[in-house]
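Try this one yourself first.
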């Protein structure tokens, strides 16, 4: 499947541009995740593929056909929505069979395909129930089964797990991945949840302001962000970003000093993820900073610590990669420490910043300055 320079404008004065020349090529059988903040254009891209929106310009290619001018029913796509959209008057069997009947599939084939899909999804004992008698997870399985039983060329999922509780979302992520691998259908999955993006996708496309920011494997996007927006968006807690200055091969950001001979003199942004920080005694001889602890979250296998360090934070707006300046001489950062911690609010914590996991970005554009070795 190909999205070739897809642009979508909505009427207005001036027109609202939801997608700005989106280019994506999705391999057969691939599960590609579209991720980004609310209003970034990811659902609009999905709707342009589904035929629910008409691109202002550009091409949508499925298989060997350009489909941007075809109605939805002729595109051979199936879609799962956030709200399940099951027919309340039909049983689970009736919901699964509905699309096949609409396409005039012979009754024996309908029965076989419905029962095979129900067994694969573990809902074969629910075929006589109606949607009101199902749990959220069961309803989601029925919605996915109704789409997949048609054996479409493209499977589209629009935040399908957002209505489920956290534990069930984790379970359903695993089931979606197994099911997609089993049926091998090309899939486009929209979410704002980074955990879903990282665990489900063969590749991730990060979108912001209608513009593709980065396309790559989960590891590439997380470890080698192309700009400060991607760095800040991917990861929970997000990457710490400090305003810094490069001078004669050394970058300074508050108390932090980093050797970076390849960086030209001038303002830069220094980025490091919470998991890149460790108590100073565990990593002697590396750059460090002092945190005044404000909040401690004990999570069992790890401890999240939030506090202030010397320096100025660099924030990233949701509709551009450019960082917005904030006044002040202290910056709030997060650290992810292993296991339980005896750190308490008000403590002054000496933290080492592992140099190999540090990122540098241009202060004017937010673009990454150089690729560095990652651990």
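Now uncover the answer:
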């Amino acid at each position: 499947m190909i999205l070739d320079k897809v642009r979508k404008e909505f009427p207005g004065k001036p027109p609202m541009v939801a997608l700005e020349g989106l280019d994506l090529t999705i391999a057969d059988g691939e599960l590609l995740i579209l991720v980004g903040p609310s209003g970034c254009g990811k659902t609009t891209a999905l709707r342009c593929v589904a035929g629910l929106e008409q691109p202002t310009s550009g091409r949508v290619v499925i298989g060997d056909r350009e489909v941007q001018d075809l109605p939805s029913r002729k595109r051979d796509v199936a879609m799962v929505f956030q709200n399940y959209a099951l027919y309340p008057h039909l049983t689970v069997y009736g919901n699964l069979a509905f699309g096949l009947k609409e396409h005039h599939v012979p009754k024996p084939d309908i029965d076989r395909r419905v029962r095979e899909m129900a067994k694969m999804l573990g809902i074969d004992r629910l075929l006589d129930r109606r949607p009101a008698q199902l749990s959220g997870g069961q309803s989601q399985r029925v919605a996915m089964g109704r789409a997949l039983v048609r054996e479409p060329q493209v499977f589209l999922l629009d935040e399908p797990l957002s209505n489920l509780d956290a534990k069930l979302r984790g379970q359903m992520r695993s089931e979606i991945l197994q099911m997609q691998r089993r049926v091998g259908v090309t899939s486009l999955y929209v979410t704002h949840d980074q955990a879903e993006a990282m665990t489900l996708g063969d590749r991730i496309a990060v979108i912001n302001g209608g513009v593709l920011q980065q396309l790559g494997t989960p590891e590439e996007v997380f470890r080698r962000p192309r700009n400060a927006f991607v760095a800040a968006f991917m990861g929970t807690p997000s990457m710490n970003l400090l305003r810094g200055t490069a001078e004669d091969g050394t970058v300074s950001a508050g108390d932090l000093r980093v050797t970076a001979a390849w960086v030209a003199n001038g303002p830069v942004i220094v980025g490091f993820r919470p998991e890149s920080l460790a108590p100073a005694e565990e990593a002697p001889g590396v750059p460090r900073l002092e945190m005044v602890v404000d909040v401690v979250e004990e999570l069992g296998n790890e401890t999240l610590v939030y506090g202030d360090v010397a320096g100025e934070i660099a924030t990233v707006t949701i509709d551009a990669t450019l960082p917005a300046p904030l006044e002040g001489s202290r910056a709030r950062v997060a650290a992810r420490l292993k296991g339980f911690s005896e750190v308490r609010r008000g403590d002054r914590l000496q933290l080492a910043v592992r140099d190999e996991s540090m990122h540098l970005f241009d202060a004017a554009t937010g673009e990454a300055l150089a690729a560095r070795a990652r651990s």
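Discussion: The chain has two domains: 2-223, 228-362. Residues 371-375 have pLDDT under 50 and may be disordered.
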